[in-house]
Amino acid sequence: MPTSAMESPQSNVLRKLKPLNVKNEEYDFSKLEDRPRAVHMERHKSCDENALHDLAVGSMSSLPSFKNPANSRFHDNLESIPSPDKRSLLNTPKASNFSEASPMVVEGWEALQRSLVYFRGLRVGTIAALDHSEEALNYNQVFVRDFFPSALAFMMMKEPEIVKNFLLKTLRLQSWEKQIDRFKLGQGVMPASFKVLHDPVRNYDTLIADFGESAIGRVAPVDSGFWWIILLRAYSKHTGDSSLADMPECQKGMRLILALCLSEGFDTFPTLLCADGCCMIDRRMGIYGYPIEIQALFFMALRCALALLKQDDEGKEFVERITKRLHALSYHLRSYFWLDFKQLNDIYRYKTEEYSHTAVNKFNVMPDSLPDWVFDFMPTRGGYFIGNVSPARMDFRWFCLGNCIAILSSLATTEQSAAIMDLIEERWEELVGEMPMKVCYPAIESHEWRIVTGCDPKNTRWSYHNGGSWPVLLWLLTAACIKTGRPQIARRAIELAESRLAKDNWPEYYDGKLGRYIGKQARKFQTWSIAGYLVAKMMLEDPSCVGMISLEEDKQMRPPLKRSSSWSC
């Protein structure tokens, strides 16, 4: 159909490159009907010899053996799994239709292409940043969480091969023996990142993975496994091909991740107990305990796994455990992590030292511990999931990633999702300012900063993870806006980002109360800043893309909330 004269060239370009249509689904825990169609095939050769060969550019030498041979056997011939869309690099957006797109979009795609990492001729991910003006440190590695928006971008542009490569490569790394000092990590732990070392003499590539032994504080990445499961579901949903997820290795990889999270212990809560620095906020920032980012990702990963696990003997056992945990987790988070005007007033009036099952103040939170800022921050209409809830402690800070994932996973009910968007609109200056979007709000400072961060010079007030503004969060905000029917909020945020992001060479983060200044230690040409913008732009152009990473609410998980919520104001 010819393009209207009133349409922009960019709209025309993105229509030509319109991604595969996807639909939101609603999970029925008892039936689990919404699964991609299985592809049955015979597999004979080992992955050790043939992994990803169908996507290779030219002939490759055999892949290296695992560090742990006992866990290294892949019995499937991956050549028999068809790639949904084989295309060469000549058919990239930059080389084909993006000549008509806006200069910022073209620049973004060119930068994203330059960030690609190759392992023996295969594209296996994107590096964290391509800033040659600074020492590389670990910014030359492929991070699991950082690659997620890049993966979405490539899938939207009908290039899912790189995502398949990444999923298989990180799955292989999961089977490595993981040890820090003399302590062995759980078998299901996924790496935080990996890098490719090239030997020019032998013309040979080697992978090196980091499971936390090189990280700040030596903390294992709790979120990596969750992002991996969510990405596997997004790949299966987008391509309509379940053959990758149905591989015995992928099924086992999911079960290993889930086994770490669903194991029984001394916990009295369904939430996951975590250390500081175990997720995007990878430095000491007072998120130890039960951070909302991890709980929301945990919830979403459980729901994705429910759609991907086979109904065999092992799969059925995990399905039952997941279903029970989801009901308990959704009730706990929706009941005790949710804060609105009325609930804030109730906490302000709490009695303490209550005993027995009739206690209202179940966590024995002291009303005097309520921070002054929260009373001014909370509007009469609106609400959000607070940062942390544990005995005698509530962290009232706003965390963007946790709340956006809560919307996308339907951890937040329809009413709660609308309330979160109301809060963003009401507190636009505080949460968005001049550059979307605050990773958390507010910043901690003075004596509290010294105690909580240990005087961390990188997390000073309104900088980095301490109230800094991160452009990567733009894609999460946009997806949440589209799901809740508020695209105008996303459009406004994207326009703000477009005013500076490319001119400033795609910084990692911005500093200041309004996000006005490029971060004092921010890397330029940060890959997920670039990918976050591109994904947000394409989602706004084609809202059906959100179906890749959006789950519909399951009415069975709605708890009979007795406390009032912001939507009744």
Automatic annotation (TrEMBL):
Signal peptide: none annotated. Its EC number is 3.2.1.26. Pfam families: Glyco_hydro_100. It catalyses: Hydrolysis of terminal non-reducing beta-D-fructofuranoside residues in beta-D-fructofuranosides. The keyword Cytoplasm does not apply. Keywords: Carbohydrate metabolism, Glycosidase, Hydrolase. InterPro entries: 6-hairpin_glycosidase_sf, 6hp_glycosidase-like_sf, Glyco_hydro_100. GO terms for biological process: sucrose catabolic process. SUPFAM superfamilies: Six-hairpin glycosidases (SSF48208). GO terms for molecular function: endo-alpha-N-acetylgalactosaminidase activity; sucrose alpha-glucosidase activity. Belongs to the glycosyl hydrolase 100 family. Invertase that cleaves sucrose into glucose and fructose. This is Alkaline/neutral invertase.
